[in-house]
Write a structure and sequence with these properties.
With 135 residues, the chain is an alpha/beta fold. The protein contains five helices and five strands, in the order H-E-H-E-E-H-H-E-H-E. It has one domain: NAD(P)-binding Rossmann-like Domain (Rossmann fold, 3-Layer(aba) Sandwich). Strand 1, helix 2 and strand 2 form a beta-alpha-beta unit.
């Protein structure tokens, strides 16, 4: 719905950048979320690619960001802190960089994709996951 609302104005301007939020589950699998979540995130990535294709000639770039487990606030922080040391080690061992991401790290990628610094990037999903997808 947000894309429908902004694309006409962006097309009139001859430029624009849309950044959708996906997740690792959109192109891999989810260990905690269910099939509905995986399907929804895969849909976000398909929508991203199709909109990039359809609207690129109008100067509109469409990309997505796919973070993995990220410390996004008190709720997630609390869930993380409630895990045993063994559970935390297991989660972190699946991330080559050995730590969880932060909101600021995800936001930096969103800002980059929304900026002119990424003017030749469209139709992609950028993983922000410390290498989690590699394992």
């Amino acid at each position: 719905l947000c894309c429908q609302a902004v694309i006409p104005q962006m097309a009139r301007q001859g430029r624009g950048a849309i950044v959708n939020m996906s997740a690792l589950a959109g192109h891999w699998r989810a260990s905690l979320a269910g099939v509905q979540y995986v399907a929804a995130k895969a849909g976000v990535e398909g929508l991203t690619r199709q909109l990039a294709y359809d609207w690129g000639k109008a100067g509109i770039r469409v990309n997505a960001v796919a973070p993995t487990v990220t410390l996004t606030g008190d709720r997630i922080q609390g869930l993380w802190e409630a895990k045993s040391e063994e559970e935390k080690k297991k989660v972190l061992s699946a991330i080559p960089l050995g730590r969880l991401g932060t909101m600021e790290e995800v936001a930096a990628v969103v800002v980059f994709l929304a900026s002119d610094e990424s003017s030749f990037i469209t139709g992609v999903t950028i993983d922000v996951n410390g290498g989690r997808y590699l394992r």
